[in-house]
Amino acid sequence: MLMIHSGHCSKRRMIYQWLFIIKLVHLVVCFVAGQNSSNSQPLDYRYACLDQSSVPTSTAYQTNINNLFTSLSSDSATSNGFGNGTSGIDQDMVYGLYLCRGDVNTSLCHSCVQNSSILLMQHCPNNASAVFWYPFCLLRYSNQNFFGNLTIRPRIPMFDATQNFTSAGEFDSDAQVLMNGLIQIGSEAPLMFGTHMFNINGTQRRYGWVQCSRDITPEECRTCLSNMLEDVENCCQEKKVWRVFSPSCIVMYETQPFFLNGTDSAPAPQQATDGNNRRWWFIVIIAVAGIVALALLVISIYYCYLKRKKDKQTTQEEGLNSIFSQEQTDREESMNTDLPMMPLSTILKCTNNFSDEQKLGKGGFGPVYKGTLPDGRQIAVKRLSKTSVQGGEEFKNEIILIAKLQHRNLVRLLAGCIEQNEKLLVYEYMPNSSLDFHLFDIKKGAHLDWKNRLNIINGIAKGVLYLHEDSRLRVIHRDLKASNILLDHEMNPKISDFGLARTFGGDQKQANTIRVVGTYGYMAPEYAMEGLFSVKSDVFSFGVLLLEIISGRRNTKFYQSDQGQSLLIYAWNLWCESKGLELMDPSIEKSSVHSEVVKCMHIGLLCVQEDAADRPTMSSVVHMLASDTMSLASPTRPAFSVGRTVIEQESSSNTSMHYSVNEVTMSEVIPR
């Protein structure tokens, strides 16, 4: 034990020594570099704090600003220098945007956005909107949606008062010509920025720069830059060095080169003095030594911790690589199902580049977006999250399975897309969202009368019957629940989300799995406890769903009510006391037919019986629903309720959260 302890101390002491060396190198480099640049113009910044009087009173807005800045900063680490986003909802929503100079690399852009967000919060802590201009980037936010809007106010001029022209007319003949030409160049460039250097009298050089925010049009860019030049004529006509900032564009005019990647017309660097040469060689040597030391330290730390996390990392990497490193295999599988493939460019256009405004919800598979095709048809696009191993498995399952299923009560898979590391599924769009969005909301549930509910019950039953008996494959859905029942414009139900489905072939009746997937409250007991699933597992889930539709109550929430029991046991007790109508949602009292309600409750209790052998098949369920004279068997006590500790969020905010067991992650469903 003594030797082991000593070894750890030795390694720790070595790490501290390396850290000390690197810190010392950093201080030396900073000192020398600071000495070298002490005579140059310091990097400055400007900011504008706006709309202080209209700041939302809740602290949620400030939290959303922080969240937005974190998101934008993260995005800037991998983007091409421009990005926007939102955070929050309703009156607390904040819109934000960053724009980096067109000549900076990703690392410098990321650093600039990070620093800008910190400084902006320091200078404008209580403002509804603000703009921050740093030497290499622009950062702005607002409680109003400004994306795509030309904004030329406020305009902030900045100039060097020590460098003046000898005559005011010099600006008109030099800067005006240069900047007018740059306006045309910058507005038409792909990144909407332009630079240029030109000679004055063959001896002096001037450097110009223009850049626009990439969410405005080229014409708006020209308008913005022209307005900036008008301000220059008022504030800086006699100045040799000036800059003018606005939220949508920037112009800069300098006597010294400041571009980070020079053009062919850029001036050659001045010859350094011997002292400067020696100083820069010293900087290079120190910097290289520091980099080498840092690399050795990183390698040492990585090696020490690699073994301890190797198994976990290997498992995760293999899971993700199995999804993203076999793109060709996935494409071939999709082709074998005769599934049409839609170009990524088309999907990006119709979803507005997967904008947050088009987002419908998010599940274990990944986010879902609304889109509009060029012909006007609306679609729903599932986008596989690059961090979801489960989502990758569901993606393949849906491509192989649902493309072969065709029924009026199943959601239609229209197309797929496997392109540029994107994996997308395109479905028909359901304008009335999912059943739970209406059923478990007091106000919306009141509009779901008995006629509609009975139509939904019949439609779900026919859809499940098709899966079990009438399709080319016998399909066990394994995740029937209210949030997976979508409603079309006429409130007809369509079963969705086949990512967890399994198929049976030949005479196979049931199967066993050690990977139990599904949702608490809808699982049959033999499946939840033993991993046994069959068509009777779906029958159980259908029974739970039927009782929820009658009562307007969520099974997984019911135990928290004053009854202190599950919905299934509550319904059973009412049935035994001949009080079945008390289960009925009060909002359908006037529109209901009591005999139909009692019959549906009877069928629901038959479906949730504890012994799978006692439950009816879906063909029997469909016959029972269609018949008014068929004699029904007496139900036995239902199974216990699985998952009584589930925590769910109320749907009063129009968003419901569903937490699933084992491998199933939570899914968020937002009204469609």
Automatic annotation (TrEMBL):
Gene Ontology cellular component terms for the protein in this record: plasma membrane
A matching Pfam family: DUF3403
Primary location recorded for the protein, binned into one broad class: membrane
Keyword Nucleotide-binding among UniProt keywords: yes
Highest taxon of source: Eukaryota
PANTHER family: CYSTEINE-RICH RECEPTOR-LIKE PROTEIN KINASE 10, RECEPTOR-LIKE SERINE/THREONINE-PROTEIN KINASE SD1-8
Protein name (record): non-specific serine/threonine protein kinase
